Amino acid sequence: MKFCPKCGTLMKQEDKYFICPKCKHKEKKGGEKTVFTEKINKSSEITVLEHDYKLLPIDNEIVCPECNKSGAYFWSIQTRAGDEGETKFYKCINCGYTWRVYD
Ligand SMILES: [Zn+2]
Ligand SMILES: [Zn+2]
């Protein structure tokens, strides 16, 4: 149950959002995990589970290619069973840009 912060109407749940039926105010649900997909190697699409970034280790040496500041959360996933190495992901602590590095 969630009430619209703007007009106080009970909001409807729709997919990943709460939507106010009265003023159309839209809010993302407050779950700590968001699932999004990323295209990898053109054809193979995998689902990446976005972590609770506050729990992830931070690499202070890595420089964000987007904002050129240093510091990024990192984690790794196994892209395919065995035949490919781990794919390492970084998420910039400054601008939130996410990128990946192949081992
Ligand atoms: Zn509203
Ligand atoms: Zn950045």
Describe the structure.
Residues 60-100 form the TFIIS-type domain. Zn(2+) 2 binds at residues 64, 67, 92, 95. GO terms for molecular function: DNA-directed RNA polymerase activity; nucleic acid binding; zinc ion binding. Belongs to the archaeal rpoM/eukaryotic RPA12/RPB9/RPC11 RNA polymerase family. A zinc finger (C4-type) spans 4-23. The structure is a single chain. By secondary structure, the chain is an all-beta fold. The protein has a domain at 32-102: N-terminal domain of TfIIb, CATH 2.20.25. 0% of the residues lie in helices and 47% in strands. It has no helices and 9 strands. The protein has strands at residues 12-14, 17-19, 26-28, 35-40, 44-49, 58-63, 70-78, 86-92, 98-102. Strands 6-7-8-9 form a 4-stranded antiparallel beta sheet, with no helix packed on it. Strands 1-2-3 form a 3-stranded antiparallel beta sheet, with no helix packed on it. Mean pLDDT is 79; it is low at 38-48. Bound molecules: zinc ion (2 copies). One zinc ion binds at residues 4, 6-7, 9, 20, 22-23, 25.
